Amino acid sequence: MKQVGMDGGAPTEEEVTLLGLWVSPFVRRVEWALHLKGIPYAYVEQDIIDKSPLLLRLNPLLKTVPVLVHRGNPLPESLIILEYLDEAFPGKGPSILPRDPLCRAEARFWAKFPEEKLLDNAWIAMTTDGEEKEMALKSASVVMEKIEERLKGVVNFCGGDEVGFADLAWGWIAHWLPVWDEVGGTSILNEGKHPATLAWARRFTGHPVIKENLPPRDKTLTYYTEKRKRIMALKA
What we know:
Layout (H helix, E strand, L loop, with lengths): L15 E5 L4 H13 L4 E4 L7 H6 L8 E4 L2 E4 L1 H11 L12 H17 L1 H9 L2 H22 L13 H5 L1 H14 L10 H12 L1 H5 L4 H19 L1
Parallel strand pairs: 1-2
Antiparallel strand pairs: 1-3, 3-4
Helix pairs in contact: 1-3, 5-6, 5-8, 6-9, 8-9, 8-11
């Protein structure tokens, strides 16, 4: 990768910069990891509609956030960034991924499972009505059953006593999914069916580092309410 400083000049040796969007769960999971590991960083807020020249220069292929820049090297995709932080800063803070190879593989699987099976359906359920919404809800319900089973018996976090890779990846379920449920008039996540998931969500969002770095719920709710209105208007 081409090394680029944030001002276009040569990067400093340990310079870490994160390009993000305040309401993005993918950006927030990177911020959580940076704080958990005690890695200082600069943050640059981005407009994902009117994309900045900086974002287009650092992430020309995907044009998305987050983008982590370390030693002038830009790196996109939040889960990839989480693994990179563990490997690039081995002496900083707790390990995000388990040391044991099998446990690492399991953590990667569970981190990706809701991302691939639940995320799109939850979004569709929030931003549609009618048959499309019902189909998304049915698919989401099946996935939530699997997640609930995974979390039964978990005392603290997926990573054990400390927040780990899967916890960070699932952070959107804890904070964003209840907001999407409210906006879309759904109940993908509910106490009757998912007590273990909600218990984990309360532990996760109550962790000091996570709690201090969550987007305000009222502001998040307003953002997605307006987002749904715009999407629905385009379909009208």
